[in-house]
Amino acid sequence: MSRVRITVLKREYYAELLDEHLPPDAAERRVRRCGVFEDGQVFETARSCEKPDGFCDWAWRDIQRDVISVAFGVGHPWTSPRPMAISCCTDGKRPVVFKIEPIERSQDA
Protein backbone atom coordinates (compact mmCIF):
# COMPACT_ATOMS: atom_id res chain seq x y z
CA MET A 1 0.00 0.00 0.00
CA SER A 2 1.23 3.48 -0.90
CA ARG A 3 1.11 6.75 0.90
CA VAL A 4 -1.14 9.12 -1.03
CA ARG A 5 -0.89 12.78 -2.08
CA ILE A 6 -4.14 14.75 -2.30
CA THR A 7 -3.94 18.01 -4.24
CA VAL A 8 -6.72 20.60 -4.34
CA LEU A 9 -7.17 21.20 -8.07
CA LYS A 10 -10.05 23.64 -8.04
CA ARG A 11 -12.70 25.15 -5.78
CA GLU A 12 -15.93 25.85 -7.62
CA TYR A 13 -18.88 28.12 -6.84
CA TYR A 14 -22.34 27.88 -8.42
CA ALA A 15 -24.07 31.19 -7.74
CA GLU A 16 -27.13 30.21 -9.78
CA LEU A 17 -27.82 27.32 -7.40
CA LEU A 18 -27.53 29.58 -4.36
CA ASP A 19 -29.80 32.16 -6.02
CA GLU A 20 -32.41 29.53 -6.78
CA HIS A 21 -32.33 27.52 -3.57
CA LEU A 22 -31.45 29.87 -0.71
CA PRO A 23 -33.35 32.86 0.66
CA PRO A 24 -31.69 36.22 -0.08
CA ASP A 25 -30.70 36.74 3.58
CA ALA A 26 -29.07 33.31 4.06
CA ALA A 27 -25.57 33.56 5.54
CA GLU A 28 -24.49 30.68 3.29
CA ARG A 29 -24.98 32.92 0.23
CA ARG A 30 -22.07 35.15 1.31
CA VAL A 31 -19.57 32.28 1.14
CA ARG A 32 -18.24 32.16 -2.40
CA ARG A 33 -15.78 29.26 -2.52
CA CYS A 34 -14.87 26.70 0.10
CA GLY A 35 -12.90 28.40 2.84
CA VAL A 36 -11.36 25.23 4.22
CA PHE A 37 -9.11 24.60 1.22
CA GLU A 38 -6.99 26.68 -1.18
CA ASP A 39 -6.33 25.85 -4.83
CA GLY A 40 -3.01 24.01 -5.07
CA GLN A 41 -2.99 22.95 -1.43
CA VAL A 42 -1.39 19.52 -0.86
CA PHE A 43 -2.08 16.89 1.80
CA GLU A 44 -0.43 13.52 2.36
CA THR A 45 -1.74 10.40 4.05
CA ALA A 46 0.14 7.91 6.15
CA ARG A 47 0.20 4.29 5.00
CA SER A 48 -2.93 3.73 7.08
CA CYS A 49 -4.86 6.20 4.86
CA GLU A 50 -6.10 8.22 7.83
CA LYS A 51 -7.51 11.68 7.25
CA PRO A 52 -4.67 14.21 7.04
CA ASP A 53 -4.52 16.96 9.67
CA GLY A 54 -6.51 20.00 8.63
CA PHE A 55 -8.59 18.12 6.04
CA CYS A 56 -12.34 18.79 6.02
CA ASP A 57 -14.28 15.91 7.62
CA TRP A 58 -17.09 16.11 5.04
CA ALA A 59 -14.74 16.14 2.06
CA TRP A 60 -12.78 13.24 3.56
CA ARG A 61 -15.92 11.12 3.79
CA ASP A 62 -16.61 11.88 0.14
CA ILE A 63 -13.15 10.99 -1.24
CA GLN A 64 -11.92 8.36 1.24
CA ARG A 65 -12.83 5.37 -0.97
CA ASP A 66 -10.83 6.90 -3.83
CA VAL A 67 -7.85 7.52 -1.53
CA ILE A 68 -7.90 3.86 -0.46
CA SER A 69 -8.27 2.72 -4.07
CA VAL A 70 -5.20 4.71 -5.12
CA ALA A 71 -3.25 3.54 -2.06
CA PHE A 72 -3.81 -0.05 -3.19
CA GLY A 73 -2.75 0.72 -6.76
CA VAL A 74 -6.15 0.77 -8.45
CA GLY A 75 -7.42 4.33 -8.88
CA HIS A 76 -10.00 5.21 -11.53
CA PRO A 77 -9.77 3.28 -14.81
CA TRP A 78 -10.68 6.43 -16.78
CA THR A 79 -7.73 8.52 -15.52
CA SER A 80 -4.15 8.55 -16.61
CA PRO A 81 -1.55 7.83 -15.43
CA ARG A 82 -2.83 5.02 -13.26
CA PRO A 83 -3.21 4.59 -10.39
CA MET A 84 -4.73 8.03 -9.92
CA ALA A 85 -8.16 9.51 -9.24
CA ILE A 86 -9.93 12.81 -9.66
CA SER A 87 -12.60 13.15 -7.00
CA CYS A 88 -14.63 15.88 -5.30
CA CYS A 89 -16.63 16.67 -2.23
CA THR A 90 -20.40 16.58 -2.54
CA ASP A 91 -21.15 20.21 -1.71
CA GLY A 92 -23.39 20.91 -4.68
CA LYS A 93 -23.00 24.67 -4.40
CA ARG A 94 -19.26 24.86 -3.61
CA PRO A 95 -17.57 21.60 -4.63
CA VAL A 96 -13.83 21.09 -4.29
CA VAL A 97 -12.02 18.93 -6.86
CA PHE A 98 -9.06 16.80 -5.74
CA LYS A 99 -6.30 14.90 -7.54
CA ILE A 100 -5.37 11.74 -5.65
CA GLU A 101 -2.09 10.00 -6.51
CA PRO A 102 0.33 7.56 -4.92
CA ILE A 103 3.54 8.91 -3.44
CA GLU A 104 5.36 5.60 -3.25
CA ARG A 105 4.69 1.90 -3.54
CA SER A 106 5.35 -0.37 -0.61
CA GLN A 107 7.74 -3.26 -1.18
CA ASP A 108 5.03 -5.52 0.29
CA ALA A 109 2.31 -4.48 -2.20
Q: Could you characterize what this model shows?
A:
By secondary structure, the chain is α+β, with helices and mostly antiparallel strands. The protein has helices spanning 15-21, 57-71, and strands at residues 4-11, 42-44, 85-88, 96-102. It has one domain. 20% of the residues lie in helices and 20% in strands. The longest helix is centred in the middle third of the chain and has 15 residues, at 57-71. The chain is elongated. The protein starts with a strand and ends in a 7-residue tail after the last strand.
Topology:
Elements: E1 4-11, H1 15-21, E2 42-44, H2 57-71, E3 85-88, E4 96-102
Antiparallel strand pairs: 1-2, 1-4, 3-4
Short structural summary:
The chain is an alpha+beta fold. It is 20% helix and 20% strand.
Low-confidence stretches: none
Total number of beta strands: 4
Structural class: alpha+beta
Beta strand %: 15-25%
How far do the termini sit from each other?
6 Å
What's the arrangement of strands in the largest beta sheet?
A: 2-1-4-3
Shape type: elongated
In helices, the fraction of residues equals: 10-25%
Q: Cα-atom Rg, whole angstroms?
A: 16 Å
Characteristic key phrases:
alpha+beta; single chain
